[in-house]
Structures are given as structure tokens and as C-alpha cells.
Design a protein that fits this description.
mainly beta, 1 helix
Amino acid sequence: NTTLWEHWPEGSEHMGTINHAWSGGPLTLLSQKVAGLQPLSPGWSRFSVCPQPGKLKQFSASLCSPQGIIAVNAQKTESEWTVEVTVPKGTVAVIDFSGFGSNKSPFELTSGKQKLIVKAK
């Protein structure tokens, strides 16, 4: 399902729906802004990972693309961020860590699960 489930008490005219989009907005914002997941080409064959965690010390997000699961998992210590990125076979991730305060230029990752270390600022 692409949205959140909603269920009403038994005896209601309608028992519920799987299309409860009003509360799905924050999930979209967390994936797009905090985790920084955005498609760059149709079908997510090329996508960006540009996290903007603000004051968060950890976050994770995943989504189902036509090629497979795309995932980002990040944790902060005092001196660095550890970021794991899962890139499905046949896709390319464009990684931009400027949201962590990094001055490293964006770079590309191909398929696999990659563990990256970024100095915290």
C-alpha cells in the first residue's frame, strides 16, 4: 500500500480504507527532505540521496522502486555520520552530503549496500 490504513469501529457504514492520504504527507517529507531520496529519472533508475537531518542524530527511510528496495540509514556520533545506502541492481545513486556540512562534491554509487563515513560538523 502507498498510504496509511484507517479503520473505523464495527457497525460503521464503511469499515475503513487503505487510502488515508491526509496523514501520509509527513512520511513523504521525511523521505524526501530528511533522508533526501528523490528520483532523477523515470522508475528511480537514477536517484539522489541528499540528506538534510537538521538536529536529528539518526534516521532511516526506504522505498520500493521498480528495480528493488532503496534505503538510507544514518547515525551520528560526536565526530562523524555513518550512512548506509542500499542501491538496487541496475540503478545509480547520486550522493550529496552537503546537508551534513560536508564540502565533498556529489558522487555516484552503483548497486549494492554501501557504508559511508562522513565527518560531522
